[in-house]
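Issue 218. Parser rejects a valid record. Input:
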Amino acid sequence: MELAAGFASTSRDDWRALALEVLRKSGVEAGSPEEALSRTTYDGLTVAPLYDLDDLPGDPGAPGAPPYVRGSRAAAGWDVRQRHAVPDPEAVPADLENGVTSLWLVVGDDAIPVDALATVLKDVYLDLAPVVLEAGRLTERAADALLGLAAARGVAPTGNLGASSAYGPAAAELAVRCAADFPGLRAVTVDATPYHDAGGGDVEELGCSIARGVAELRALTGAGLSAEQALGQIDFRYAATADQFATIAKLRAARRLWARVAEVCGAPEAGGQRQHAVTSSAMMTARDPWVNMLRTTVACFAAGVGGADAVTVQPFDACLGLPDDFSRRIARNTQSLLLEESSLGRVIDPAGGSWYVERRTADLAEAAWAWFQEIEAAGGIDAAAGLVSERIAATRARREADVARRRLPITGVSEFPDLHEKPVHRRPAPVPEEGGLPRVRYAEPYERLRDLADALPERPTVFLATIGPLAAYTARAAFAANLFQAGGLATETAGPGTDPEQIATAFAVSGSPVACLCSTDRLYEQHAAAVAAALRKAGARRVWLAGRGHYDGVDGNLHAGCDALAVLRETFDDLEVAR
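Output the parser choked on:
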């Protein structure tokens, strides 16, 4: 059959036959292309290579209909929310004058002191710019200060007080107060980012957030609020990553999950989840931080497509310390471009109806609901702290293994590092309040090695024993250099040639005790053992080989999927660099 546009209609079987042919030509034998090309996420969910109408879940809901809609500001897209963690009264109005529409203030002894809130907000119209507080155990004091400031100005504040029942009964008391006197202000924030920042997967983040949300509902209804009132007092905060489809599906799944909670509570009309998406801290890098601009742009796009009501793009240098005017400007302009020039906020649920996104949304929601039920069976989110920590630790370990083996590549760190990059210096930022979970960044293991190498008077060097002509060794020499440079190690190349003695002489001149053979498999068969023996005689402590072959005198191999961090740590030991 010919379609109207002139394209022939094809079926899944047609695709399967073509895919199998390509796989066989590539040397991959598989019973089906789905088997060969599918991958498993850290949550244990399968992502297939192809989706069609048959993959739609039974009842995905109508795209662009509840729960996949934003709140009251939907017509304007989303709130552009900037985070401030120090009392800088000039930075706040600068943000608000240049595209930011709501403020996220971190309050604490080492952040913005409670007594400094009035100074920080002196030029802010509290009835126009929503203010979201993050104050931990100081929430009650911070809330009183904000409400007192609003009362003194005779205005009704909007935003969220950032309370949580995890810190005591103040959350319920503030929620009762907001419900009675401040219709534009919410009291409670369910912050799911600590589960993500600890290395958890999307299912763990979602399930834990719903469990915490249910705990908040119990506290609020126990204080006298109706289910509908309690639901109207809670906001949720999620991490947005550079895996755009995972982020889109996660935010959509969160809305489905919370709508189900509201339905069970008997208030389905109040089940619209208010979401604040924050670009992931765990994905940020201190090395080559400029790449963070790309990561946060993709994450912001995904948050907007996923339906977040408010988005915070972290400045590209956030993990280096306090951001400056330039990095804050880039952060807010990332959102302005997507909203004003790309008009992304004008489309409600743009991913809705996609077979892939709908299937992934449903799979995430189902798995997260099962995890939520497991937490509830263990006594709720507070009682299940050990269970949560154990499960997140298992996910973190799987991710760390992929980072070590560069199956989860980090551009500018584990891949394509620049040993000559100019460092970006920032003032130290306030340390977040300690919780029960660790905070990780995926790039940290490599960056710690880079820091050690950079601190030495002379950068340690690994000798690349190149065998044969330039065309023969270039690919593997580049691979090996990339791996060693990920740990801050320089490399020196022997150059063309196959004479073991000449290569050994060049090795001796380099002064390095570590060498790596680089060439083709054919030339390895002819020369690897002899070159390795010559290198040993010249004093090599360890001889690596770029490739998978095993030869006399070779200690180990560098190849795609090898444990790069283990190679680097062994090399540091051979170079006598203290770790």
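Fixed in the parser; the record now loads. The chain has 19 helices and 15 strands.
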